[in-house]
Design brief:
This protein is an alpha+beta fold. It is built from four helices and six strands; from the N terminus they run αββββααββα. Helix content is 27%, strand content 32%.
Length: 127
């Protein structure tokens, strides 16, 4: 069955069940499956989902190696009383998602390397 072996240990490499390199076409298709007509392509590597309940941005790096999903939460001014708790959450509980402030907005940010990002993980993060 043609196993791959580590050049260092000469042991078989583990079999991975994830897809390598999630593509922009797969991102588009997955977003359309999740959000239907609410998906708008706003650039070569960027998408926006606008619903009555939330706005979601999906950004793929120029070299298509990293993906970010961003959700605006509140203005930075409104978040000010909670900044200590948010930073503690970033350190301890948020895993692949972080809180960030940019352009005077508090954002929820999911960031992942595309090489190990599965469609299932992307779907969970986006929904």
């Amino acid at each position: 069955m043609g196993e791959n072996f580590s050049p260092i240990t000469n042991y078989p490499l583990p079999i991975t069940n994830y897809q390598i390199d999630m593509t922009s076409e797969e991102i588009t298709n997955t977003l359309k499956e999740l959000f239907d007509a609410d998906v708008e392509t706003i650039g070569a590597n960027s998408w926006q989902v606008e619903t009555t309940n939330f706005r979601l941005l999906v950004l793929l790096s120029d070299d298509e190696s990293w993906l970010r999903i961003l959700v605006p939460i509140v203005s930075a001014t409104e978040a000010q009383p909670f900044l200590e708790k948010l930073l503690e959450a970033n350190f301890d509980r948020t895993l692949e998602t972080r809180y960030a402030i940019h352009q005077n907005v508090l954002w929820g940010v999911f960031q992942h390397n595309c090489q190990s990002l599965s469609i299932a993980d992307f779907s969970i993060a986006a929904s």
